[in-house]
Amino acid sequence: MQTKTIGIIASIIVGIAIVGAASLQPDSEINSLEKNAVDIETLNVLLENNERVFVVDIRTAQEYQSGHIVGASHDALDSTTLEKRVNTIKAKLPDVVAKYNFVLVDNDETFAKEASKSMTELGIQTFYLDGGMSNLSENLISSSQTVIDSKELMEKINANEDLYLLDVREPEELLESKIDGVVNIPLSEIFQPNGMDGIPNDKPVVVICGSGNRATIATYALAQEGIDFQVLDGGMKAWNLQLQS
Question: Of residues 18, 56, 96, 209, which has the active-site annotation?
Fold first, then answer.
């Protein structure tokens, strides 16, 4: 009983530390990278209590599809896409930057640790899952593909498959080109209270933007709500090229 009590107290202490970190200013200095580690027990508590945290699985698409933490989105970050994501989140989603924490997940924490440090230094409070996914096998869920290319999407549309096409660009961008039948909810609205009302959770949701950047960020929120998402690879740029081929 004493061991169990100590474990519970320790988890609560870690959770308090993480939630408290949300009040850090974007330019606050993280003196020890180890302070950015989150254990799976604490993360589960935060998710169950609907705390303001987005979990982003940065492993390969195949690994994510085979089994991931409930509520985690997928984003195979690298040095280029990481900075692009951060810049977009800071520009388009200031409330998310101010009020939310991010937790990155990989196999053994190696890249997630470095990526979380980079994101924090760039102004978004980010943690990593201590130990990664390598030792986790329980309470994981599988998923279908997380990315769809233009050719496959076109084939599905022509076959009248039941899809929900979600375009997260700004309304004026759709005036230039759009896919017939899309529902337009700009990225900033997706992250607002009730911003995802009306988005179904019983069919694939194909998320569309100009290049795939904003669409991927939108999946952070969609995954948290259990919505089956697929990002249009290359966005409208790739779609328009497919139309010309």
Answer: 209
